[in-house]
Amino acid sequence: MFIATLIAASLPKGEVAAARDRLDAAGCLPVAEEWVEDGVACDLQFGRDMAAARAALEGEGYDVVVQPVEHRRKKLIVADMDSTMITVECIDELADYVGLKAEVAAVTERAMRGEIDFAGALRDRVVLLAGMKESTVAKCLRERVKVTSGAKGLIRAFRANGGTTILVSGGFNHFADPVAAEIGFDRALANRLVVKDGRLTGVTEQPIVDAEAKKATLLTALAERGLPPSASIAIGDGANDIPMIEAAGLGVAYHAKPKTEAAADARVRFGDLSVVRYSLGI
Predict the structure, then answer these.
(1) pTM of whole model > 0.85?
(2) What is the DSSP string of 143-163?
């Protein structure tokens, strides 16, 4: 059996009935419905063909997550930070303090779309920050970094249900560590800016936290806990999240770039991170 969870800020019962009709017309054999939260999120259980269910339900103005019933409850979340758990790209905001936001943001966009090498793009952007006071990084954290709506509810509810949560970022530990603490993650992994005499040197410590490092974090956490990939969920928005999204039991593209959407099992296009919580039946 399978579940299609429909989620919207306002989800009328008539829309749920129409979705059930679409599943029926697609030959998916819908058998039951149950509200996760009244008027917001509803599960439609059906008997076959997840691909047909996604095709029948996506594009209707609500978010939908389709998955097997038996693997719905997860034990591990690995999540990206920038533009996923927080609303900004931190390196772009740092660059704004030295008048280079447009230039840096253009490179960030290309890297997140998978058009250029992530490690090279990171090196080229970080060097532009050479000489910046470390206190400016702290100022950026205070002034620019905002936690994404629904993030705290997702992570704290997941941990309350016995799950492990890891924040893994191609950004910087100056942001990832306090963000992880604020949201409630078990731990965080991110790149480390080299600082000398209170100023950024324009380089990061090696090795770089790149796409393969994100995937390795997920796989290592599964192995340490004796869990199968089906027990995991990975959430991200950029091309450097694709390997971990593909390796997870449920890969979620959150307001993501086209290549990331194409690689994911589920796509959050309308709502906030509460969509992911509801999709897990929480």
Answers:
(1) yes
(2) HH--BPTTHHHHHHHHHHTT-
